[in-house]
Amino acid sequence: STLVQHDLKDHAYAGYIIRVRLHNEYINARYINMVMKSNLIREQIEGPIRTTTGVKNINSNELMGLLVPLPPKNEQGIIIKKINEIDTTLSNLKVSIQSAQQTQVHLADALTDAAIN
């Protein structure tokens, strides 16, 4: 899933791409993009999936059959905001863990050097 936020007039699309236009008064496109990348949707897609030469495909009829949770639009915005906050927190935690691991390596090296000398 990808989100194109501007009109692409006079553009051609590859035959394997399914373009969806949403009713913006009811649906936040960023919310749908996030949901389409979720495990909930992934499991629905991968269950009956067909592959040709290792490429996974879904057709428009299968896409229309997906069960997509659709809360009111204002709640969609709240969900997007919360997911973004969680993603930021996770990124910060990863940086902290990497920094702690680096410090651990330096301390181990310093202890080894001190023990040898």
Automatic annotation (TrEMBL):
Domain of life assignment: Bacteria
Mind telling me which InterPro entries this protein's record contains?
Restrct_endonuc_typeI_TRD_sf, Type-I_RE_S_subunit
Q: Which GO terms describe its molecular function?
A: DNA binding; endonuclease activity
Q: Which UniProt keywords apply?
A: DNA-binding, Endonuclease, Hydrolase, Nuclease, Restriction system
The keyword Hydrolase is annotated on this UniProt entry: yes
Gene Ontology terms: biological process: DNA restriction-modification system
- Chain coiled-coil ranges: none
The protein here is known as Restriction endonuclease subunit S
Organism lineage reads as: Bacteria, Pseudomonadati, Pseudomonadota, Gammaproteobacteria, Enterobacterales
